[in-house]
Amino acid sequence: MLLEVRNLGVSYGNVLAVNDVSLQIEGCSIAAVLGANGAGKTSLLNAIMGVTRAQGTIHFEGQMISRWSSARRVSAGIALVPEGRRILLSLTIEENLLMGAYQRRDRGVTSDLAEMYDLFPNLARRRHELGSVLSGGEQQMLAIARALMARPRLLLMDEPSLGLSPLFVREIFNLIQSLNEAGLTILLVEQNTRMALQAAQRGYVLRLGRLALEADTEELTKSDDLTKAYLGGGVAVNNALHA
Ligand SMILES: Nc1ncnc2c1ncn2[C@@H]1O[C@H](COP(=O)(O)OP(=O)(O)OP(=O)(O)O)[C@@H](O)[C@H]1O
Ligand SMILES: [Mg+2]
């Protein structure tokens, strides 16, 4: 297993945002984390990244990293594409990209930058312009490219398709697929249930901080359990699945 999370708990004062969650992510796979607003998805990713304090243990490539700083986790091979992208609008696109590599001491940064520009021609053309010139979809691409500049083996993605046009949504999912084919393991938080289940092999549903359901996505797509686990019933997920 690339990532093993055991009995993870995140609390903010009295709010138990993540409650006793365990999961195992296989190398080179895509896993989807689904759940309603406030279910604890972001808290889970932030805890794995080490930007939120958490209880429980996290093993990455066999090493216990739960006490490590987030910087050390980045060096070990975990990167986060945060909720809301968090692009620095007053820096140039290139400066934003270099932020993703700020901890690296190897000589590969320049060639990785070139690789990102190959992958994202829209960013290449405007590398010396400010982040603020980019559209929402382009900012999301920049956030992904910035995370890739850390050369991760595990990429945590927090709702990368949120608020984007259908064209960009498709582009994001194509990118997720091709990064995965190149060997990257991806833990994907998504509101776009249908696309996420198509992309991932394994799905996890969080409900009120707890893991309500976990199964192979093929099985999840067919069964009614997803709808039940998601919101305790309701039509919202049915619509998402059949949209
Ligand atoms: N910094 C914080 N301080 C206090 N409570 C918080 C904080 N961050 C999150 N929470 C609460 O923790 C719970 C889980 O929030 P979290 O953001 O992890 O959920 P989420 O599944 O990512 O939601 P969304 O779909 O809206 O992004 C919610 O009840 C939220 O209000
Ligand atoms: Mg969230």
Mean of all residue-level pLDDT scores: 93
CATH architecture: 3-Layer(aba) Sandwich
Query: What's the CATH H-level superfamily name?
Result: P-loop containing nucleotide triphosphate hydrolases
The poorly predicted ranges are 233-243
Largest sheet entry: 6 strands, mixed
Label this structure with key terms.
10 strands; 243 residues; binds magnesium ion; disordered C terminus; binds adenosine-5'-triphosphate; four-stranded antiparallel sheet; globular; alpha/beta; Rossmann fold
Describe the overall structure.
Helices cover 39% and strands 25% of the residues. With 243 residues, the chain is an alpha/beta fold. The chain has one domain: 3-Layer(aba) Sandwich (Rossmann fold), CATH 3.40.50.300. Strands 6-7-8-3-9-10 form a six-stranded mixed beta sheet, sandwiched between helices. α3 (93-99) packs parallel to α6 (136-148). It starts with a strand and ends with a helix. Bound molecules: adenosine-5'-triphosphate and magnesium ion.
Show the helix and strand layout.
Elements: E1 3-12, E2 15-25, E3 30-34, H1 41-49, E4 55-60, E5 63-64, H2 70-76, E6 78-81, H3 93-99, H4 109-119, H5 121-125, H6 136-148, E7 154-158, H7 166-181, E8 185-189, H8 193-199, E9 202-207, E10 210-216, H9 217-222, H10 225-231, H11 236-242
Helix pairs in contact: 3-6
